[in-house]
Design a protein that fits this description.
By secondary structure, the chain is an alpha/beta fold. The protein is built from 6 helices and 3 strands, in the order H-H-H-E-H-H-E-H-E. The longest helix is centred in the N-terminal third of the chain and has 10 residues, at 16-25.
Length: 142
């Protein structure tokens, strides 16, 4: 709702884990109420119409360490990563990745390389802090 409240038309694509979590907690309906488009988590079949327009601005939040690594490595094994991977580094596209990680993750030898790869492709990175409102990530959008 905060994105829509700022005038954004939201197209929501979830990772399979996020979809299962929202379904199991009963929160999927609340998320779906934030958009006039279908909430996606799986790819469409050939010949099916595209359910979302082609946006110029993407917010990936909350992104897990696993998803950040996959995006940096070009691994598109779910619909959310496919959509982002297709536009990563493209001119005229804004991507903000707001990630949530364990404090110890920063010590992993590959972690900083993943962040550097994404930043090098023009991605704005923001580490979410559970003590602060996640909507801070919206402030990073154009």
């Amino acid at each position: 709702r905060p994105a829509a409240g700022r005038g954004w038309r939201t197209a929501i694509t979830l990772t399979p884990t996020a979809m299962r979590w929202l379904e199991s907690t009963g929160a999927l309906a609340e998320v779906a109420a934030c958009t006039d488009l279908p909430v996606r988590s799986v790819s469409r079949l050939p010949g099916e119409p595209r359910p979302h327009p082609d946006p110029e601005v993407f917010l990936f939040a909350p992104a897990s360490a696993n998803s950040v690594a996959k995006l940096a490595l070009g691994i598109a094994d779910n619909q959310a990563l496919t959509v982002l991977g297709d536009v990563l580094g493209a001119p005229g596209i804004t991507i903000v990745v707001a990630y949530q990680i364990q404090d110890t993750r920063v010590h992993h030898p590959a972690w900083q390389r993943h962040l550097d790869t994404l930043a090098g492709a023009g991605v704005t990175l923001h580490r979410l802090d559970l003590r602060r409102p996640w909507t801070e990530a919206l402030d990073l959008l154009p």
